[in-house]
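Friendly challenge for the regulars: who can give me the structure tokens for this chain first? No prize, just bragging rights.
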Amino acid sequence: MGEIVIAVLVLLGGFFCFVAGLGVLRLPDVLIRMHASTKAGTLGSGLILVGVAVHFGDTATITRAVATILFLLITAPVAAHMIGRAAFRSGETLWNTKIDAEAERSLKR
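First reply, four minutes later:
Bragging rights claimed.
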């Protein structure tokens, strides 16, 4: 039973990491790519680390896995915010949405 749980955790983690990589390749602008990579990448890495912690089960491995997951959860949003801010300030072309078009029209009035 434990091997099934470990396999599910690692496979789900791998799937989310794959989705993060696919999002970086396929999404239209830097802000959306950054969102995909931080959210799905952090979830995928966390699931893989939980699977590793469950597999080995010793205190040292569990402590390292928990510390790494906490580090990812703390640093990923901050890094994403700083990358998005730098992209916006540098004038990176963003993907136009209906909301952006309406905002531009309201500014011209």
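The radius of gyration is 19 Å. The longest helix spans residues 59-89. Your move, everyone else.
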